[in-house]
Design goal:
The protein is of the alpha/beta class and 363 residues long. It is 34% helix and 23% strand.
């Protein structure tokens, strides 16, 4: 079976036209430069349709038609189209054949983040260190302090906040311009996981990821917040730089496990924030030790104290150490985080202490 190409996709999409007032048949969405971010992987196709945000509701029918049109291409297993008001690159069929793309100016942004007092990124240099669990529990600890809190799940490829916060459903738009975040436990939440099924892979190229991240920040009606916690994607690539350079971050928190290899990646994350002039508020050592739920014995599975020592070397605050414990894992998996479900638990008190340090540092 021949491999599906961008040129084939654009040729098919030329059948989709935007009606005009004078009934001249209109222009197709490719000629209008509305197609961007085409990604093709394993017979699955994803692409964006750039629109005027004020016409989001009426453009939904166009999105569905475009999606079906591409889905009908021989060899395409599935097609997903999203509406976006953040144009980065537009395509035409001739450029797709030649491999060249044309630039067009960014659309104006709807700054739904205008009334957020502080934005703090929770980051790590690598995946698998428990960053999302820390993000949600710190956000909830801040809420328990009486603050207005938002939580942005910026990990487009591995969104976990819907499960961890026990929230499901799709964000709605009241005004046709911005999305309303979902809420639970008194905090406002936005995640790509609300818009993509849990078992559906997100196979996007860089431009689509960048656009999605900027939309989740700027095109969401966050309202007035004291603080927005941003659960960053792991690593130090384009996605992390996009957020660091486009969001007015007031600080970043680095999460690491104790072993040397994780600390090397943590240092990379720390240095990335320093290079883009985002202050690092401190380092957290997660999975610092294993605490046996039966006997309470402490085992240093990954070593212990490495992040504390590294923080001292880097002249950076050490915010605390969180153990590897079953209660933290099960409450997160069940959508009932430990800070809420067991507020007096010793682990919850650790999260509360870290949240208090972060808030005091910001003020």
């Amino acid at each position: 079976m021949a491999k599906t190409t961008e040129a084939q996709i654009l040729l098919a999409l030329e059948e989709i036209t935007i009606p005009t007032k004078n009934n001249d048949g209109g222009k197709n969405i490719v000629a209008l430069g509305m197609i961007s971010g085409i990604a093709i992987k394993d017979r699955m196709v994803q692409f964006s349709i750039e629109i005027d945000p004020e016409k989001a509701d009426e453009m939904e029918d166009i999105r569905k038609k475009a999606e079906q049109c591409v889905n009908n291409i021989d060899g395409v297993l599935s097609a997903t189209a999203i509406l976006t008001a953040e144009a980065k690159e537009s395509y035409n069929r001739q450029q797709a054949v030649s491999g060249k793309k044309s630039k067009k100016p960014d659309s104006s942004k709807i700054n739904g983040a205008a009334n957020i007092k502080y934005m703090v990124a929770i980051a790590s240099g690598k995946g698998g260190v428990g960053k999302s669990t820390i993000s949600v529990n710190i956000a909830l600890s801040l809420k328990l302090m009486g603050l207005k809190v938002g939580l942005l799940d910026a990990d487009v490829f591995g969104p976990s906040m819907p499960r961890m916060t026990g929230v499901s459903g799709k964000p709605q738009s009241i005004d046709g311009n911005s999305l309303e975040p979902l809420e639970n436990y008194g905090i406002k939440i936005m995640s790509m996981g609300f818009m993509v099924a849990e078992d559906q892979p997100v196979v996007w190229r860089g431009p689509m990821v960048m656009g999605a991240l900027q939309q989740m920040l700027n095109d969401v009606n966050w309202g007035e917040l004291d603080i927005l916690i941003i659960d960053m994607p792991p690593g130090t690539g384009d996605a992390q730089l996009t957020i660091s350079q486009n969001a007015p971050l007031n600080g970043a928190v680095i999460v690491s496990t104790p072993q040397d290899i994780a600390l090397i990646d943590a240092k990379k994350g720390l240095n990335m924030f320093l290079k883009v002039n985002v202050p690092v508020l401190g380092i957290i050592e997660n999975m610092s030790y294993f605490l046996c739920p039966q006997c309470g014995h402490q085992s240093d599975i990954f070593g212990h104290g490495g992040a504390r020592a590294e923080a001292k070397k880097l002249d950076c605050k050490f915010l605390g150490e969180i153990p590897l414990h079953m209660d933290i894992r099960t409450t997160s998996d069940n959508g009932n985080p430990i800070v809420i479900s067991q507020p007096n638990n010793q682990h919850s008190l650790i999260y509360n202490d870290i949240a208090d340090k972060i808030w005091n540092d910001l003020n």
